[in-house]
Amino acid sequence: FSYYHLRPNFTVKLIKTPDFFTWGLPSRLAYYLNSLAFYWRVRTLNLPPTAIIISRNPELLWFYGGRGYRSFYDAHKWPNRVSMLLKWFLSTTTGVIANSVGTAAEAKKYQLNNILTVPNGVDLADFVNRESEVMAIKKKFNLTGKIVVAYAGHFYKWKGVDTLIKALALLPSE
Predict the structure, then answer these.
(1) % helix / strand / coil in the chain, to the nearest 5?
(2) What pLDDT, on a 0 to 100 scale, did the predictor assign at position 69?
C-alpha cells in the first residue's frame, strides 16, 4: 500500500498452490497445471457477497461472475482476432479495466459494456531529486561521464527492447 500510495481499504490474501514449473515439466504444461491448481484452490475460498474480483484470468471471472460477484477483467492485451471462447468467459463480468485506449477499443469489439480506461503510468515525483543516487551508481560501476540507458521489465518482443538494442548499435562508438 505504501509503495503505490494507496489507502489500505482492502486485504491481500496469499493463495498457496503447487508450482509445477519447479517440477521440470514443459513450460506450457506447467502453466496449465499451475492455472488448474489455482482455480481449484480459489473455488474453496469463502468470499463475502460484497467481494469484488479483478483478474486477468477470464475463466476465474466467468466462475465468480456466474455466481453473482462483481467481477472485472484487467485487460492488458487482447488476442488479434475475436475469440468466441474469451467472449463467453467474459459474458458474466461486470466490466473491463483497460490499460489503454487501444485495449478499450478492442474490448468494445466483444460488445462489452462498462469499460474503464486506466492507462499504465508512472508517478514522475518518484524520480525527482534522485541525482545523488544516480551518481553513486555511476561511480560504483565506473560509468561517470558516460551516457547510461536502463530498462526494467520483461524482454517480450512487443516491448521493443530489441529495437533499443539495434538503435544503440547505430550510435557513434564514443
Answers:
(1) 40, 10, 50
(2) 95
| pTM of the predicted protein model | 0.68
Please check whether residue 8 is in contact with residue 1, taking contact to mean a CB–CB distance below 8 angstroms.
yes
Under a CB-based contact definition with an 8 Å cutoff, are residues 62 and 89 in contact? yes
Cα-to-chain-centroid distance, residue 99: 9
Q: Tell me if 74 sits within 8 A of 90, measured CB to CB.
A: no
Model confidence over 45-92: pLDDT tens digits? 888 999 999 998 888 899 999 999 999 999 988 876 668 888 899 999
At 111, which amino acid appears?
A: Q
The neighbouring-strand residues paired with 96 are: 73, 115
Closest by CA to 67, choosing from 48, 85, 80, is: 48
Phi, psi of 47 (to 5 degrees): -85, 145
Closest CA to 78 of 117, 113, 53, 105: 105
Rounded CA separation 105/46 (Å): 35
Sign of the Cα torsion 128, 122, 1, 150 reads: negative
φ and ψ at 91, to 5 degrees? Answer: -65, -20
